[in-house]
Amino acid sequence: MSEIKIKMVDFGEPAVRALLADVLDELSERYGGSGDDTPIGAADFTPPDGAFFVADDGERLVGCAGWRRHGEDAELKRMFTAKAARGRGLGRRMLATIEESAREAGCARLILETGDKQPEAIALYQSAGYARIADFGYYAGETGVLSFAKDL
């Protein structure tokens, strides 16, 4: 098993778009519909107002996560680990990378929305020091939405 490297990339790269299709497919399996209708533009992840990272195992992209500015906060978006790479701490590494990037850009907190059908994500966020906050995003007020934040 090769070492997984995390690197910043352009959100619009074809390999990134292919991985994001996997993200939405999995969300669709869990929640139905498109998986996530949150409006996202490639410019959302352009420094200094955001960044997008992928995890590369040397053969393919196996994970991703990005953040975009949301007022004084950074909002975590599209955090994902491919099934083949799960259980190896990659999600925790990706989260730490996002936190560091957002902190360096001057953001005070990292905020995120997730759903109640993603227990592994909820467990990761809670174990990494995230606390529940009032819902804030596209799905605010929807059943099953959970919002979290962590001071950076």
Q: How would you summarize what this structure contains?
A:
Helix content is 28%, strand content 32%. The chain has helices spanning 14-31, 90-104, 119-127, and strands at residues 5-9, 50-56, 61-70, 73-81, 109-115, 131-133, 145-151. β4 (73-81), α2 (90-104) and β5 (109-115) form a beta-alpha-beta unit.
Task: Note down, in words, how this protein is organized.
There is one protein chain. The protein has three helices and seven strands. The chain has 152 residues and is α+β, with helices and mostly antiparallel strands. A seven-stranded mixed sheet has the order 1-2-3-4-5-7-6, sandwiched between helices. The chain is globular, with a radius of gyration of 14 Å. The mean pLDDT is 90.
Gross morphology is globular
What does the main sheet amount to? 7 strands, mixed
Helical residue percent band? 25-40%
DSSP strand tally:
7
Total helices: the number is 3
> Average pLDDT value?
90
Report the structural category: alpha+beta
Rg, alpha carbons: 14 Å
Strand order in the sheet with the most strands:
1-2-3-4-5-7-6
Task: From the structure above, extract its key features.
single chain; 152 residues; alpha+beta; 7-stranded mixed sheet; 3 helices; 7 strands
